[in-house]
Amino acid sequence: MAIEDRGEAYLVTHALAKHTLTKIRDVNTAQVAFRKGLVKLGRIAGYEIIDGAMETEYVSVETPLAETTGEQVRGLDDVVIINVLRAATPFVEGLLKAFPRAKQGVISAGRDEEAGMNDDGEFPITIDYVKLPEITEDDTVIVADPMLATGSTMCTVLDHVTDEQPDPEDLFVLSAVSAPDGLLRVGEQFPQADLLTVAIDDHLDDDGFIVPGLGDAGDRAFRTK
Ligand SMILES: O=P(O)(O)OC[C@H]1O[C@H](OP(=O)(O)OP(=O)(O)O)[C@H](O)[C@@H]1O
Ligand SMILES: O=c1cc[nH]c(=O)[nH]1
Ligand SMILES: [Mg+2]
Predict the structure, then answer these.
(1) Helices and strands: H and E segment counts in the chain
(2) Which residue of 12, 77, 138, 143 could cross-link 82, Cys pair, CB 3.0 to 4.6 Å?
């Protein structure tokens, strides 16, 4: 298993995840390579969730030559992936390679960057659209957003995801880059969630951007600036 417990979060430690994150951190990595990098990170993280958190069962299988025993992953039909628009879209594309039959939810969430952070280090979050599947107690729920900065977006998203739904078997908050503030905020407000990230960065700047981070993930993936 290449998921390492860091106390406040679990790290995806697969070498290709670190390699890919380094590539997309680079200011010279342009839109297409940036977006492909997020897709790749989503796929690797999905495989790591399967390897680290899902069980296998023995099944008998008939090859062209003989009957033998193999293993299959349990619960692949009981996966829910929540796409936090906009930056999570390529990340989710990668996750879907690991979980092609996942139920999918979409939440459109944006930070009000003009309003800025309040004294508690939170942004006002605008939610424009919410469409979620029914969640069951058997489900593994993965809420994906490549950036976990102040945690304001994720906490607002999780309010919707957990509202009037049963507790799933597992609830993962998956990000590529996290700031300590965001991990602490989400961890405090949603102790039932497992926080999974490729990197925990140093700090947030005065505008709420992760340092060193990778800049504005949405703008870089969608070429809006
Ligand atoms: O932890 P937080 O401080 O809430 O910041 C993280 C959020 O900020 C970014 O979204 P943004 O509001 O820029 O929207 P976008 O994805 O449409 O660019 C990012 O994709 C996260 O959703
Ligand atoms: O560093 C950050 C913080 C929030 N959203 C981003 O895209 N990047
Ligand atoms: Mg953005």
Answers:
(1) 6, 13
(2) 143
Ranges of H-type helices in 86-151: 88-98
Q: What is the pLDDT of residue 1?
A: 37
Q: Which residues have CB under 6 Å of ligand 1?
A: 84, 86-87, 109-111, 123, 145, 147-154, 182, 208, 216-218
Instruction: Assign 2 a pLDDT band (cuts: 50, 70, 90).
Output: low
**CA geometry: angle 143, 7, 179, nearest 5 deg:** 55
Atom of ligand 1 nearest to the CA of 219: 18
Q: Report CA(158)–ligand 3 centroid distance (Å).
A: 18
On whether the CB atoms of residues 190 and 209 are closer than 8 A, the answer is no
* Per-residue pLDDT tens over the stretch 172-199: 999 999 999 999 999 999 999 999 999 9
Inter-CA distances, 151 with 74, 137, 211, 224, Å? 31, 25, 15, 23
Query: What span, in angstroms and rounded, lies between the C-alpha atoms of 117 and 114?
Result: 9
- The residue ranges of every structural domain in the chain are 3-54+72-222
- Closest Cα to atom 8 of ligand 2: 216
This model of the complex carries an ipTM of 0.97
Which pairing describes strands 170-178 and 140-144: parallel, antiparallel, or unpaired? Answer: parallel
CATH of 3-54+72-222 given 3.40.50.1220, 2.40.50.100, 3.40.50.970, 3.40.50.2020: 3.40.50.2020
Section 198-202 average pLDDT = 97
36: its two tokens = 């492909």
